[in-house]
# Entry
Amino acid sequence: MPQVLIILGSKSDAPVAKKAVGVLKELGISSGTVVASAHRTPDRVKELVAGSDAEVFIAIAGLSAALPGAVAAATVRPVIGVPVSGKVNLDAVLSVVQMPGGIPVAAVGLDRGDNAALLAAQIIALHDSAVSGKLLKHRQAMADAVLRDSEEVAKDVQA
# Structure
């Protein structure tokens, strides 16, 4: 049973999903990834969501990006929508963030599978202290990298 189920609107969304899976693995969170289209296979979307024990869903889709809303309509568990870039990026972004009242979807930035995974981890960390500790270590590693970068830039600029 994956803790996070990642649903892609199409196979072409896989590079964004790989970002999410990488972060989830780093944090020790199990995940599964499937393809199901809100428009082409709506019954499959409903079946996948209803049959899943996942704590959090990440729905990744471009174009009309209806998938996050379709997933959210089928569950009361948290859904994180990730809009995917394309020829016109604004349509996917607006589809994810402009959900009707009563069916919320958390939204992250364009192609930000990594941030979707971190948000899923924060949700899981509410009841899992091990994940909470790993998130704190992850943030400390980011802070340490910024400090190293600052020292390097200071040396380069002063030279």
Q: What stands out?
A: The first strand starts at residue 4 and ends at 8.
